[in-house]
Amino acid sequence: MSTEILVNRARAICEKNGARFTAIREKVFRLLADLDGGIGAYELLEQLKQTEPGAKPATIYRALEFLTEQGFIHKIESSNAFLLCHHFGQHHPAQLLICDQCGNVTELHSHLLQDEFNRQAVAQGFDIKQQTIEAHGSCKRCRSS
């Protein structure tokens, strides 16, 4: 899906939610939309500084917090990186396949895995607030090269 289509979807969701999709938030969103994998906040800040020289760490963290709250991005906890969710519009559990060689991240949506995970959590008396499952390994492209 093109970056413009994703940006327009994000704008529409923000408008519907009464949230402000500011110029900085849009720029950070666009930077994430142009990536195949995750990126750290400071790497993202360096890219943002190319068009916003006065950007500070707080600038990027506020934008990332907003994008996370809107359900536009996922945080990859194991690498402290961020990834655009191409299925955004509602908060949902995610399963991430992370290639340790090239950094590519594939987002899956297995209802079977989600249901079993939730069932076992309930059996333990655990209330899940957010669910992201990360699997590290090698993608098909890296294994075949």
Automatic annotation (TrEMBL):
Cofactors demanded by this protein: Mn(2+); Fe(2+); Zn(2+)
Presence of keyword Cytoplasm: yes
Biological processes per GO annotation: negative regulation of DNA-templated transcription; regulation of secondary metabolite biosynthetic process
Entry's localization field: Cytoplasm
Positions bound to Zn(2+): C99, C102, C139, C142
Domain of life: Bacteria
Pfam family, one: FUR
UniProt GO MF annotations: DNA-binding transcription factor activity; transcription cis-regulatory region binding; zinc ion binding
SUPFAM superfamilies membership: Winged helix' DNA-binding domain
Cofactor note: Binds 1 Mn(2+) or Fe(2+) ion per subunit.
Chain residues that bind Fe cation: H91
Keywords assigned by UniProt, alphabetized: Cytoplasm, DNA-binding, Iron, Metal-binding, Repressor, Transcription, Transcription regulation, Zinc
Keyword DNA-binding: yes
GO CC terms of this entry: cytosol
Family according to the record: Belongs to the Fur family.
Summary of subunit composition and partner proteins: Homodimer.
Protein's name according to its UniProt entry: Ferric uptake regulation protein
Species of origin: Rheinheimera nanhaiensis E407-8
